[in-house]
Fold this sequence. Notes:
This protein is an alpha/beta fold. Helices cover 41% and strands 22% of the residues. It has helices at residues 16-34, 47-53, 59-67, 92-100, 124-127, 168-183, 199-215, 226-235, 247-260, 298-310, 315-330, 348-362, and strands spanning 4-12, 37-42, 70-75, 105-111, 131-137, 145-152, 158-163, 188-193, 220-225, 242-245, 268-272, 277-281, 333-334, 344-345. The strands form three sheets. The chain has a ten-stranded mixed β-sheet with strand order 2-1-3-12-11-4-5-10-8-9, with helices on both faces. The protein has a two-stranded antiparallel sheet with strand order 6-7.
Amino acid sequence: xxxxxxxxxxxxxxxxxxxxxxxxxxxxxxxxxxxxxxxxxxxxxxxxxxxxxxxxxxxxxxxxxxxxxxxxxxxxxxxxxxxxxxxxxxxxxxxxxxxxxxxxxxxxxxxxxxxxxxxxxxxxxxxxxxxxxxxxxxxxxxxxxxxxxxxxxxxxxxxxxxxxxxxxxxxxxxxxxxxxxxxxxxxxxxxxxxxxxxxxxxxxxxxxxxxxxxxxxxxxxxxxxxxxxxxxxxxxxxxxxxxxxxxxxxxxxxxxxxxxxxxxxxxxxxxxxxxxxxxxxxxxxxxxxxxxxxxxxxxxxxxxxxxxxxxxxxxxxxxxxxxxxxxxxxxxxxxxxxxxxxxxxxxxxxxxxxxxxxxxxxx
Length: 363
Ligand code: NAD
């Protein structure tokens, strides 16, 4: 009997539906070639969810996500929703999905495809062959800690407070994810903190070190202060394999790492933790190019690859997709965001078609 999976497909807003449509074409090829049965359950999210039901994360969308084996998300947001109440903004749907699905680990690979080495703002020799993974804690730390807020003191001066909190169990579970993925890569983890100044990250370092000693001694562990890590990422990024860090440090370092590759339209991500994981490109809804068939669908297509690797136990599909993308880039095809002199410019749909054609030959 063929294996059957249900995937919640949430295209969202702006270029979200365009890039998701190309990723769905890819899912259908994999389905046919591997003899799987994929039930794709498409639901509105973000601005589209708000327009359909008055809420960016409609109940039926959340249910579909919870019941699925994996979630594929396009992007949410757009200028038309920037003035509505904060609690109903499209971006709230992402926070809702993360907390409802208990997605505490965000995995962001930053991989430089050979053909795009020149697209980076760094020297080619610094980024050539780069393949690193930032594992960011996603549901704790200073973004969620209490107390928080702004109060007015006696005398009228205002004071703002946010609190950096981590429990041992929160640190253990994110560190486990990092060590586990490192075992499937080059077996190196660098844990990033600010243990010299912040007690909470001193605890982070202690707990990561203990866990490593007890369960993951086959992985090489190092520690780095966040200010140094920010510097090392541009000085010599290839020294890293997996970086694991807190929510706020990970937010900043993963954006920095993504820029090493030169294009936001190329980078996938996975959010793991609970029963169902979520896969999405790192870019937003790009309202400036929406509806123009100009978006780069490769980040979303590579997110499908991560889905097969982490949720559907088919790492071979991820490898095949990465190879297909590499070969298309080697052949000179480029969407506008990665276009350079002498290359052949294609639209979103044509790029999707190229992936489909090459994948059909590969699987
Ligand atoms: P953005 O990522 O949407 O766009 C930044 C720039 O990159 C734009 O010039 C855009 O044209 C370009 N770009 C992005 N993705 C591209 C692709 N696949 N192909 C080609 N070019 C691409 O970020 P922004 O402009 O700051 O935000 C736009 C909207 O997206 C906002 O409403 C924001 O809140 C939302 N947003 C959503 C997510 C998400 O859904 N996960 C993430 C970030 C921003």
